[in-house]
Structure formats: C-alpha cells, structure tokens
Amino acid sequence: MLSNIRIVLVQTFHPGNIGQAARAMKTMGLTDLVLVNPRCFPDEEATRLAAGATDVLDNARVVEHISQAVGDCVQVVGASARLRSLPLPHFDDPEPMAVQMVEHAHEAPVALVFGRERFGLTNDEIRHCTHQVSIPANPDYGVLNLAQAVQILAYEVRRAWRHQTPSAAQPKSKQPALPTREQMAHFETHLHQALSSSGFLTQPHARTEDHLRALFSRAQPTRKELSILRGVLTTLEKAGTKRDG
C-alpha cells in the first residue's frame, strides 16, 4: 500500500534537497518519487545527501509538468505553508490528511506535492490538487526546509498506515472507484466548455470555476457519478445547439 503513496517535488532548486527528501522518504517506507522540472538532476549533491537512499533517486521519474506527475492519482494533496486564494478543501492538521490518504491508497495512487524552496506552489499548480495541507508550525517562525516538510508528512502517513484497523487494512473491493486527477481534469475542461457556451461565465473575476472545483473536491464523486455528470453536460450542450439552430 505504501508503494501507492507518491512524493512529488516541483521545480526543486537545490539538488541536495532532492537527496534529503529521498532519505526522508525511505526512512518512512515510501519509494515513489516524481520530480517536476528540477533545476539539476541527477546530481552528485543529491546522491551524497541521500545517504543510502540512492535507490529512491535511481527510480525517480522526471516530468515536465505537474499534470504528468499526478494524472493517475485519485487524491492529490498540496503542501502549503499558508492558505492561498483558492477555496480547495484544506487540512489544518496532517493527521486526518494522512488517515484519508492511506485509505485511498489501498485502491489507487495518491500524491503529496511540495513546491519550490522559496515560494512553494503557484495557484495554477494547486489547481491540479484535490486538497491542501499545512504543518502547524510556530506562527512566529514557520519556515521549514523542503526535506523537513517531506519528513513530517511522510511520518504522518506511516503512522496512519501503522495504526489502521485490521479491517481498514484490507482493500474494500465493493468500494466505488474514485476518478483519477486526469479524469477530473477532462471533466473540468468539459464543464468549462459547457459553462462558456451557455453564457454562464459572465464574470471572469468571480472565480466561479475555482469554487466549482472545490465543490467537486469536497464531494469526491465516483467514476460512475462523474460519467453521469459528463453525460448531463453533453445532453445540455446538444439541447442548446438544437435550440440555437
């Protein structure tokens, strides 16, 4: 199950932080590392600071865009030191986040996403997440090194995995499958097209689509429910075309 929990590092500047993050992962039993546009990788500094976790580095995947890193995941949690303007569901404490991630990881891949050392994730990148999480550090000095943040959240995930009940540890074969982030992105594109063609999106600064994205993140529709929603959109689009014609 831990193999389904992915760590994603976005545009890491210092290669040593990649090595330290790999070390933090391995100590907690995590092995799936994806790097989005790292400044320098592979790198000797990353290997040196991995301190024995070079197998995690050797198996790391490098991709160009965050969508490639999380497309197959059913839950994507962006680590953020502060709340952004996007209304995504937010975990103020890592513990419930970890419990939920472990539950989903029995069925499909999930991901924890970490941004750049200096300013974290952009709003556009957070739009590829389903949730956010913050580490409740000292409000007067809440500055965490990238690898430290990875270590804390990886520990919470491992603790949730160790403390799960025997019944929860068994895959729930009858549990409806959640859509992947890629499938949700296709739905969001379809929704945007339907809302635009209908004339509903008349106030570009109202962040309507951000609020709708947050709504569906909270609702966590199943793949079947998402298919029904897309069917509804298609039917409404066809009805609008006939009416206009």
From TrEMBL:
UniProt catalytic activity: uridine(32) in tRNA + S-adenosyl-L-methionine = 2'-O-methyluridine(32) in tRNA + S-adenosyl-L-homocysteine + H(+); cytidine(32) in tRNA + S-adenosyl-L-methionine = 2'-O-methylcytidine(32) in tRNA + S-adenosyl-L-homocysteine + H(+)
Tree of life domain: Bacteria
Residue stretches making up the tRNA/rRNA methyltransferase SpoU type domain: 5-155
Localization: Cytoplasm
EC code(s) of this entry: 2.1.1.200
GO CC, one annotated term: cytosol
Principal subcellular localisation of the protein: cytoplasm
UniProt cross-references to InterPro entries, sorted A to Z: Alpha/beta_knot_MTases (IPR029028), RNA_MeTrfase_TrmJ/LasT (IPR004384), SpoU_MeTrfase (IPR001537), tRNA_m1G_MTases_N (IPR029026)
Gene Ontology molecular function terms on file: RNA binding; tRNA (cytidine(32)-2'-O)-methyltransferase activity; tRNA (cytidine(32)/uridine(32)-2'-O)-methyltransferase activity
Function: Catalyzes the formation of 2'O-methylated cytidine (Cm32) or 2'O-methylated uridine (Um32) at position 32 in tRNA.
Protein name stated in the entry: tRNA (cytidine/uridine-2'-O-)-methyltransferase TrmJ
